[in-house]
Write a structure and sequence with these properties.
Radius of gyration: 20 Å
Shape: globular
Number of strands: 4
Strand order of the largest sheet: 2-1-3-4
Strand content: 5-15%
Structural class: alpha+beta
Order of helices and strands: HEHEHHHHHEEH
Length: about 230
């Protein structure tokens, strides 16, 4: 007589296969329509400069986007996480320690020793949002994250990043205007509306990934969408 585990496995496995199939076919259909229209797959990345995980996620996603010929859209955040989270300080410390470990896997080393607050680098989020639509937007963000977390340890100052902005965007770094502030708020609202709350969150065809720890899965997802 078969055991309980075997009975459950045989009863549930076919249902699981059917359920997975039902989840996959709409995604494949959307991908087929996208390809027929000559459109590329899109990665949406919501990230914060005060989040060290962003310095892991963005360079990795840029490489994946190039390899898979995907579009990468980035949305800088100032507000993130769960409001009133009592463990927020501990999470920031853990994120820095964990990011150091992840960076070493790619031969990089973090120089920053203490977590940052959102206000410390809000100007970088504003500058990035001001560059929306510019081809160098993601390149500036990646370079700024590299300098912020791997090449400095002081409280970030605008004058330390102005040359990066001119090099990548070709313009003088802008002042933060009410319009830019409103656009940053819309980024957070969009993140929440789509069902997420934290950085760095990547969305591909309605599927969410914590980008710093799921780069391989993101690459596999894009590869699957092109089949």
């Amino acid at each position: 007589m078969p055991g309980l585990a075997d009975t459950l496995r045989r009863a549930t496995a076919p249902r699981a296969v059917v359920a997975i199939s039902r989840l996959q076919w709409p995604r494949r259909l959307r991908a087929a329509i996208r390809r027929a229209r000559g459109q590329r797959a899109c990665i949406e990345l919501f990230f914060a400069y005060d989040d060290p995980y962003s310095a892991i996620a963005l360079p990795g996603l840029m490489a994946i986007a190039r390899q898979r010929n995907a579009e990468l859209q980035i949305y800088p955040l100032i507000e993130r996480g769960i409001a009133g989270d009592p463990a927020a300080a501990q999470r920031r410390k853990h994120a820095l320690v964990d990011s150091r470990r992840l960076a070493l896997r790619t031969g990089r080393k973090f120089s920053r020793e203490q977590p940052l607050a959102a206000d410390d680098c809000a100007f970088l989020a504003a500058w990035t949002e001001a560059a929306r639509g510019h081809a160098g937007m993601a390149a500036f963000a990646a370079a700024a994250l590299e300098q912020l977390w791997c090449n400095s340890n002081n409280v970030p100052a605008p004058e330390d990043f102005q040359n990066l902005y001119r090099q990548r965007i070709g313009l003088q770094a802008p002042e933060r205007t009410p319009a830019i502030t409103a656009a940053l708020s819309r980024n957070t609202a969009r993140l929440h509306r789509l069902g997420h709350w934290e950085s760095p969150a990547a969305r591909i065809d309605r599927q969410w990934f914590f980008a710093h720890e799921r780069l391989a899965q993101i690459d596999a997802c894009l590869q699957a969408l092109d089949k």
